[in-house]
Automatic annotation (TrEMBL):
One of its GO terms (biological process) is DNA-templated transcription initiation. Residues 132-183 form the RNA polymerase sigma factor 70 region 4 type domain. Gene3D superfamilies: 1.10.1740.10, Winged helix-like DNA-binding domain superfamily/Winged helix DNA-binding domain (1.10.10.10). GO terms for molecular function: DNA binding; sigma factor activity. Pfam families: Sigma70_r4_2. This is RNA polymerase sigma factor, sigma-70 family. Keywords: Sigma factor, Transcription, Transcription regulation. Belongs to the sigma-70 factor family. ECF subfamily. It comes from Flavobacterium succinicans. InterPro entries: RNA_pol_sigma-70-like, RNA_pol_sigma-70_dom, RNA_pol_sigma70_r4_t2, RNA_pol_sigma_r2, RNA_pol_sigma_r3/r4-like, WH-like_DNA-bd_sf.
Amino acid sequence: MKSTTEHIKEIDDAIVWKQLINGNEKAFSTLFDKYFNQLVLYGNSFSSNEEKVKDCIQDVFVDVWLYRNSLNENIAPKTYLLSCVRKRIARQHGRDRIFTKATSTKTLEFLFDFSVEHKLIIDEDSKNKVIQLNKLINLLPSKQKEVLYLRYHQELSIDQIAEILNINYQSTSNLLHRSLLKLRKDWSSIIYTLLIFSKISSLL
């Protein structure tokens, strides 16, 4: 269930999106400023060449403006932009080899490194647990990592993630379910190990 804040954000986006389609330049700038950095972060998950990623994102926004009259008023702008960037990067790979070993959106390798600003976590025990959890996430298959990123970093729904990945709802739900099951299983083992280590240390 979406929170009130998320619902308000979606309404605001929907209004700005319709204004953009109607040719409002300020609305276009608003969406560009709001999502550019998020799109760069997502794009960098497929390539180490940030300039190429930014070029792809700028091309996406150019197309959004040029072909705004053909855009669907009822789609979520954030989902649409993430999907377009993903597709653009996949196409770009066909023209040069800077990007990872992928030729389609279905085979793009998601390279995002889950980490945490340790300085923001005061409690040492909590910090260690978060570090361990991020390590587990980074060991997941590429597609499962991407689903987790879109679900919890970008706060997208299963439907929206399915649209971005170009797969059906059930496949997306299964990916998320498998990744969470794997994390719970491995996480339980780590917590048990940490508890044992803590007890042993206290005896030394």
